[in-house]
Amino acid sequence: MDITNCQHPNHDSQRIKYVCVDPSCSIPKKIGCADCFLDDHISHVRKTTTQFKDYVNESIQQINAVEFQQVTNSPQQDLVREMDGELDNCVECIKSKFNSIKGDLKGQIDNDMIKLQDNCAQFQQNMNNELEPFKTTIRNDLHVLNQTELNSLVKFYQEAQKIHKHYNKAAEQIQEEKQKIKQKKQKYLAKMRSIMQILLKDFNELMTSKNVQFDDSGDSETPQKQVMSPNKMINLVETARSSRRFPMSQMQKKQLLTAVTKKLE
Description:
Elements: E1 18-20, E2 31-32, H1 34-40, E3 46-48, H2 49-64, H3 73-137, H4 147-207, H5 230-243, H6 250-264
Antiparallel strand pairs: 1-2, 1-3
Helix pairs in contact: 3-4, 5-6
């Protein structure tokens, strides 16, 4: 009896030619001749036996070509270099931001100081211009002065207290402005310290957050973990196999657990 021919009594020993690959097919017999498929698989997706075998062989080769690279120290060293690079970039970014803030604040204070210095110089010049004629005139004997010069000195004598009060008040204003600039410096310094405290607080909260965990203890895994635990790896394999109706036996699970553990050690 030729097993390559159909054994159905009414199918005239036709050559077995097709395999049903339709996912919705519930017919137990998946292989048959043309009449078999007319009877049971007329609307199903089919492949010839040659096509079916070729596809299975190709799939086996493709899956078998998947390589699992050995775990070495090289990835860890690369990761360390990447971490160092990221940390350096982070520090540089923070440093750049603080330098920018410092530059802005220093620029504001420098502008205030320049204005204050200009005002101080202007007051000094006005005072010198106002006093210089009297300094020259008063060196002479009064009886040799002309009427205009003497009258000018008399007027200065009468208004000396007023003039003194005016420039004394101006000097006090200069001191007040200097104190304001000093207070502004202290305010900016406190602001810088406040920014640093906020950054450190946020950084500490971020590093202790559940969203950023670096330990790999226990079976409870977080999405951020870099290394898959042996138990989780077995569950992943088991899930994949179960979806294809090829569940692992307990013995296979033990063997895989042993192999994975050795790889990770």
